Structure formats: structure tokens, C-alpha cells
Amino acid sequence: MTEALGPLVFAVSQPGHALAARIASALGAEIAMREALGAAFADGRPIVAVGALGLWTRLIAPLLVDKFTEPPVIVVDDAGRFAIAVVGGHHGGNALSERVASLIGATAVVTTATDVLRLPSVEALAERYGWALEGSRAARLHVSAALVNGQRVVVYQDCGERSWLGRLPGHVHLASMPPLPDEGQVAAIFVTDRVLSEAAAWGEAAVVLRPRTLVAGVGASRGVLQEEIVALLRTALDEAGLAILSVGLIATAEIKRDEAGICSTAASLDVPVRYFVTTELAGVEVPTPSAEVARHVQTPSVCEAAALLASGARGLLVEKQKSVHATVAIARMTELAS
Description:
- The chain is of the alpha/beta class.
- It has three domains: 8-111, Rossmann fold, CATH 3.40.50; 122-210; 214-332, CobE/GbiG C-terminal domain (Nucleotidyltransferase, domain 5), CATH 3.30.420.180.
- Helices cover 34% and strands 22% of the residues.
């Protein structure tokens, strides 16, 4: 999976440099020169800037382009009294300000509307639970505005962590079935690993959060290409009405650990790979065992058995699908496995 970039700490004054060194040591971060600010921002590095808020605001202002892609920036005053989340609050900035504040005994200053009003934020939910966020820029802004302005918002969830549902404000309604657009509702939030026509019907008035609930079991011949595996996986998911953004794990046989096509498929999806030895796979009862596979790898199933083992599920959502050089099966993780 993609490794998160560590923060860089900047300062301009002598007192600021001393505090920056203290913060960098506590975070296990690096100290950088002010001239490196632009490159750090472009690379997506979280930034802790020590000094006056106005000074750092002027320095980062020319770099601002898109609130949904910009890295977290927090500013800490030279006396170390406040850690202020300036940019990227819902993409790690608020959490970073709170972390720095706790490390140096400062007060975290968080001003994002959903946080101070104690409202759910789709970006914060995605960040907190590791969910993928599906929706255009216009849709995200529309849903956020509806939440902040107290307009009627409907939520539908059929998988993933549900503890956040206990904190919904009065103007947010929880639906038991996938909702269609309604005159009484301004926006919708879907939390699902399924591709729902109801969600599509909302257009720019809804966002979809994708919990990483699906396991893709993969079998392959030696030398299989990533493109073939991904194409097969997409077809299997599409036919089952499942979202590729909800794939959270690739599972396969230990003997495929060095198979470049499988490794690059996992990298393209930004998910880990879990490997099982053939004795583990052979002990799993599967819908479509293969005597030919058993002759080659000493287990009658790779993709189905691996999907079941990794997910902890009793059954498959998608049984074995085949292409020329690859096989794929899909299971949904149980709470214990996830």
C-alpha cells in the first residue's frame, strides 16, 4: 500500500527554530528550509510551520489550487501556545494540529465548520475509517454545504463501521433502504460496497463512501500481466454490482509471492496482498474445485479458497471467473476478518 509521507517542519525566527526542532523530534519528522516549502506542498507532504499565521498564509497562498488534494498545513506560533489547522483540515490537518498541540502543551485550533458544529464530514469519515470517497468536487461541496446549513440529508449504509451513525444530528435521516431523490431531501450519503442505481440517480447531490470490505482471491499462470488480472477483476465486480474501490485485499497462494502481475495489481489498487500456503488452501471447501489446478499446485483451488480464508466468509459473492491466464473470486470480509 502507498506509504504516507511524513511531515516537514519549517521555521523562520530563532525562537521558531528552537521550537521547530522540538516539534520535529517529537514527531520523528524532518526540519526543512523555507525554500523547500513549494516542493514539499507539491509532493503532498504535511507541513508544520512555526511562526506568525499571517506570514505563513502569504507564503502558502500562491500554492493553493484545490482543497481536496492539498496537503495538511498547520501553523504554530513562536511561543508554542497554539497549533492552528490552516489547510487540509479534513485530510489530516485537524488531527495533526491536535497531535502537535498535545506534544508541546499547546491548544489546537480547529475551525472547519463540520467539526466545530459537531457534524459528520464525508472527508473526515473517509480519513478516519480508510474508506474511498466517490463523488465529484461539486457533489462533495453540495453535501458538505447541506450538512452545515441544516438542510435535510439522508444517509444509507449497508456495510463498514457504523459507530458514527449514533452521532447524526436531527436534520440527517438514516434510511433503511437505498433512497431515491426526494423533494424533502437536499443531499444523500451512501456507504456501500455495491454499485447502486439509487445513488447514481442523485447525480451531483450525493457522495458514496466505499468501505474496503471486499477480498479478491486471485490465481494466475506464470507471467500473467497486470492488465489481464485487472480486466478480469473489473468484469467480475461489474457483473456482481460491486465497486472496485471497495476491494481492500488481494489474496493468493504463497507460491505466487513473486508474481509481478499480482503484485502490480495490488499496487494499482493500493491494497496489500495476503498469501496462503497450499496446505491451507487445500483444506477449504470451494464451489468449483479443479483437478488440473491440484496437479500443478497441490490444491484444488487458489482464488476461491484464498478469498474465503482471507475474508473469513462462509460463502463467495462471486465464484471463480476465468480468463486465459488468471482466475478471480470475490468475498466480503466478516467483521472478525476486517
